[in-house]
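Work package 3, deliverable 3.1, input record:
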Amino acid sequence: DIQMTQSPSSLSASVGDRVTITCRASQGISNYLAWYQQKPGKVPKLLIYTASTLQSGVPSRFSGSGSGTDFTLTISSLQPEDVATYYCQKYNSAPFTFGPGTKVDIK
Amino acid sequence: EVQLVQSGAEVKKPGESLKISCKGSGYSFTNYWIGWVRQMPGKGLEWMGIIYPDDSDTRYSPSFQGQVTISADKSISTAYLQWSSLKASDTAMYYCARRGGLGSPIDYWGQGTLVTVSS
């Protein structure tokens, strides 16, 4: 089965900083990659799908890129409400494995 | 409005059985895959498996194959996750989630069901 990894596992940045999270698949998954945001105590929320398509209602400071095995999620200007854990997920075929998550907080 | 409403929190003892539910509404339940996701306390999301309610085609993550059973009753638009013999390590929040169509990711989530297994 394809394994998903993320880096870093956690990061601390200042408000307004540009933040980049990386997700890597152990085999190519084309662009079948989604990013989810989970705030503490809340249900996960879809941010980006097909690696770079922003889900309706998601702020434009979020963006995604990549294809094949290497993907990135970028927050162009970190806001206090972006404190959360971010997960990537492959969905080209079952099992739809999640990455281990990246915890983002404010410095 | 698409909604996935899960059954309430459960407290069980090791060795007991359990079946939790996820009722879909606001869309054609039979035409969308429903998956289950585990989140152990303080840990990440783990994909358990997924079912297509129209024909009950089910796919399990290797980590959960044989450990749980996923089923669905399309007549009442409800998916289920069940255990025959719970362990303390099954203590977690369990989410059901809808896959948004062929080639799509999860687009809607249930509110979660907290399962606590303790003697």
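Chain B has a mean pLDDT of 96.
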